[in-house]
Design goal:
Elements: E1 4-5, H1 11-20, E2 41-49, E3 54-63, E4 66-74, E5 79-81, E6 83-86, E7 126-128, E8 133-141, E9 158-163, E10 180-186
The structure holds copper (II) ion and zinc ion.
Length: about 190
Amino acid sequence: MRTYYLRTQFLLPLLMIPLLAACAPKGTTSMGRVKDAPPSVAVTTDLANGSGEIMGSATLTQEPDGVRVNATILGLPAGSYAIHLHAVGKCEGPDFKTAGGHFNPMMKQHGSLNPAGEHAGDLPNLVVGADRRGALTALRPGLRLVDGPMPLIDADGAAVVVHAAPDDYKTDPAGNAGARIACGVLAFGKPA
Ligand SMILES: [Cu+2]
Ligand SMILES: [Zn+2]
């Protein structure tokens, strides 16, 4: 399968194509949704800490069964760290509260171990080794980046957030994961 790697700012012209189609049927397009998106779309963002220093990066790739998340981070003490897809594409440090809560269009509770869970933005913990390098690869089943009725990257974008503590996968609304320590914006037409 071909993969289209697109820096987020380059996707704006792509989004404009359906909007500019003069006689497009009503209700088929909107900002943040690409009706005829290619089968595989990828978006990459830097993960910056509260001081604006880049600690790592995350790439989200839309696959037929969902969205694959590949994230790497450097410089954290060995351990497990919660990482989630948050609902708003805004990373204002130092606390990154601007990123909102977990992406949750189905109005569920938090966590894979929660009987009423889980959020569409929940992910397994990022594991950092003794060499202070961390990596995560996970498939988020059913999630779409830019098309379908509930795309992750909607009009207000989305964000990848790393936390100071591990996710317990059950405590609503955020897995008891502590402070937000790194953030990266997923959005169209805005700097990542
Ligand atoms: Cu989070
Ligand atoms: Zn959650």
